[in-house]
Amino acid sequence: MTSVERTREVKEHSCYIGRIVKVAIDRQLGTKHPDHGVEYPVNYGYIPGTMAADGDELDAYVLGVEVPINTFDGRVIAMIHRLNDNDDKLIVTDGKNFSNDEIRAMTRFQEQWFDSEIVRRPI
């Protein structure tokens, strides 16, 4: 992917910041990844009907919900833009605002393997 294509993708994904979205949860809090065995300390899923550069739907972490869920309607407060991977992640909450440090701590279980930046407003 060229840098122009990557910049366009970041713009497309960052446009979700501030919007209400529906997240389909495919990795509930407390479950383990089927291939890697890592346990999910947060609910994790995707935005149905979207497309990310990796060919799958756009992924999302749901933060601030302390029970396993199947779906979630919430506001996108930020995006994790991976610099060494083509799979950005939205940060969705029920209205809570988390600092970048809090987002990093809650997503570290998976994001520790990637270089990334947190985007807070549409580019």
Give a quick precis of the structure.
The protein is α+β, with helices and mostly antiparallel strands and 123 residues long. Helices cover 20% and strands 30% of the residues.
Question: Any key phrases for this structure?
Answer:
alpha+beta; Inorganic Pyrophosphatase; globular; 123 residues; 6 strands; single chain; 20% helix
Describe this protein's structure.
The structure is a single chain. The chain is α+β, with helices and mostly antiparallel strands. The protein has one domain: Inorganic Pyrophosphatase (Alpha-Beta Complex), CATH 3.90.80. The protein has 2 helices and 6 strands, in the order H-E-E-E-E-E-H-E. The protein has a 5-stranded mixed beta barrel. It is globular and about 30 Å long. The relative contact order is 0.23.
Uncertain ranges: none
> Could you say which overall geometry the principal axes of the C-alpha atoms support?
globular
Number of domains: 1
Number of contiguous helices = 2
Order of helices and strands: HEEEEEHE
User: What's the name of the CATH homologous superfamily?
Assistant: Inorganic pyrophosphatase
Strand content: 25-35%
Query: Would you tell me the overall average pLDDT?
Result: 89
The assigned structural class equals alpha+beta
Strand element count: 6
Question: Main beta sheet: strand number and arrangement?
Answer: 5 strands, mixed, barrel
Q: In the CATH classification, which architecture applies?
A: Alpha-Beta Complex
Radius of gyration: 13 Å
**Could you say what the CATH topology is called?**
Inorganic Pyrophosphatase
